[in-house]
UniProtKB/TrEMBL annotation:
Residues 196-226 are annotated as: Disordered. This is Nitrate reductase molybdenum cofactor assembly chaperone. Pfam families: Nitrate_red_del. It comes from Cognatiluteimonas weifangensis. Keywords: Nitrate assimilation. Gene3D superfamilies: TorD-like. The keyword Metal-binding does not apply. One of its GO terms (molecular function) is metallochaperone activity. InterPro entries: DMSO/NO3_reduct_chaperone, NO3_reductase_chaperone_NarJ, TorD-like_sf. One of its GO terms (biological process) is nitrate assimilation. The keyword Ion transport does not apply.
Amino acid sequence: MSVLKLIGVLLDYPHDELWEHREELLAAAADPALSPRRRADLGAFARGLLDTDPLLAQDAWLGLFDRGRAMSLLLFEHIHGESRDRGQAMVDLIAAYRKHGFELAAKELPDYLPLLLEFLDRRPPEEARDWLQHIANIVGLLAARAAERHSPYAVLFEILVESASGSLDLGALRRRASEEPRDDTPEAMDRLWEEEAVRFDTQAPDESCTPTGPLPARSATRQVQP
């Protein structure tokens, strides 16, 4: 299992099946392509996750990635928000996947970061690095926000940034993240609900609209396969 695929597996919602692959995941974290420091960081994250009760790990994942939008793993959330451009971006990304024989399941969203990493795991290294460079700013900001929230997931984003180019100033992004208002507090969630709970329009949503509810979890078993 490559480092990209491993990070995708570890970033995904931690299904119960994840714990069945402990030895494989820990072996992948020792990839010699990583620096000794990052091998240690990745191994420590994997062990920490796998030493955690699944219910607690799942609750922590939901608290970080499914509460508010700042830590969303849907990449276009950070680029297009709820604009109509997001629908076309989804279509274009699906087309890029299909061009290389990568088909999505019915409920999979193409801009979900763990899914993109699974795709990049199948592409040549230079091509994968080019894709990562295009999303490096988003991933770097996710790294900064996760660090600001004292989440161990920060290291996964940092390794992705380093895999892309390593040239981002994560310190500057961390300062930016520290100045952002939190969107995962009960007060912020209440405000968001008040804004979105009732929204009337003259037209029904078209088929290109992206769901705004909780992300459908993907199959961990599929991901962990070599």
